[in-house]
Amino acid sequence: MSRVSKNPVPIPSNVEVTITAAKITVRGPNGVLEQKLDPQLLLKQENNTLVVGQVTNSKELNAMSGTTRSLVANMVKGVSSGFEKKLQLVGVGYRAQVNGKNINLNLGYSHPINYQIPEDIQVVIPAPTEIVIKGIDKQKVGQIAAEIRAFRQPEPYKGKGIRYEDETVILKEAKKK
């Protein structure tokens, strides 16, 4: 059995978990998330914890049990407290604005970039050079952050571009004569 799947997932008191044969549904104060389950995995709710087990012992099922445990833990955390990613815009004239369900990005191109925000994701811009992406689904929050970052990745000479808050960009030395 996977080392990751041996750890039980704690369930807070304000989160409700429903397990059927084909899927798991997690409800909390922030929303509802669903995930399909492998029929060979056993998911049991004991007191205030969830335990992932497996019917047979195979290499693929062992890996799947650890993945399922991580997905369920992220679902529980998402509906109770949520996830957020912070992006920073570094460069002269780089700025962002929210217009309804669109983000307007000025990134040094000849035209502004308009990015449509999905329904279940919130984007907050506390300063013109900061973007905070919030949501209950960890995968969606990370994907949206990666898509926004892809418009102008940090370049290695001056460090200009969109970077994650905790990202460090290693700058290259300029060519010398």
Task: Briefly summarize what is shown.
By secondary structure, this protein is of the alpha+beta class. Helix content is 21%, strand content 37%.
**Unreliable stretches:** none
Strand content: 35-45%
What CATH first level of the largest domain would be assigned? Alpha Beta
The helix fraction, in percent, is 10-25%
- Number of DSSP E strands: 13
H/E element order: HEEEEEEHEEEEEEHE
Number of domains: 2
Return the CATH topology of the largest domain: Outer Surface Protein A, domain 3
Strand order of the largest sheet: 11-12-7-13
Return the structural class.
alpha+beta
What is the CATH architecture assignment of the largest domain?
Answer: Alpha-Beta Complex
Shape: elongated
Q: What is the H level of CATH, i.e. the homologous superfamily of the largest domain? A: Ribosomal protein L6
In whole angstroms, the N-to-C terminal distance is 59 Å
How would you characterize the largest beta sheet?
4 strands, antiparallel
Mean pLDDT: 92
Give me the Rg, rounded. 21 Å
Characteristics:
177 residues; alpha+beta; Outer Surface Protein A, domain 3; 2 domains; 3 helices
Please give a structural write-up.
The chain has 177 residues and is α+β, with helices and mostly antiparallel strands. It folds into 2 domains: 3-80, Ribosomal protein L6 (Outer Surface Protein A, domain 3, Alpha-Beta Complex), CATH 3.90.930; 83-164, Outer Surface Protein A, domain 3. It starts with a helix and ends in a 13-residue tail after the last strand. It has helices at 3-6, 59-80, 138-149, and strands spanning 9-10, 16-19, 23-28, 31-36, 41-46, 49-54, 83-90, 95-99, 102-106, 113-116, 122-124, 130-135, 161-164. The protein is built from 3 helices and 13 strands; from the N terminus they run αββββββαββββββαβ.
